[in-house]
Design a protein that fits this description.
Blueprint lengths: L1 H25 L5 E10 L5 E9 L8 E8 L3 E8 L3
Antiparallel strand pairs: 1-2, 2-3, 3-4
């Protein structure tokens, strides 16, 4: 049970790091309808894969999709724009 709780906390931390990262780039208005598509641990210790999407600006008609590998100890590791899953 303890291991699962720790994993949940780490997944939440990874998600918050990703949202903060994109907020710094696009501002809060640029993150309209920010949605976490999937969060899963990577094979490397303390690294999580976060798939997310959002409308990058008010006038955007299409969501932007990203896969972000996050080291929860140090921050963003790698950001890749992807197609819709």
């Amino acid at each position: 049970m303890q291991e699962n709780k720790s994993g949940t906390i780490d997944a939440q931390k990874a998600t918050l790091i990703v949202k903060k990262y994109f907020s710094a780039i696009y501002d809060n208005l640029g993150l309209l309808a920010f949605k976490v598509e999937k969060v899963e641990p990577n094979s490397a210790k303390d690294v999580w894969k976060v798939s997310c999407s959002f409308y990058p600006s008010i006038g955007s008609s299409q969501r932007s999709y990203y896969l972000v590998r996050v080291n929860i100890k140090t921050g963003i590791v790698d950001v890749t724009e992807t197609k819709r899953e």
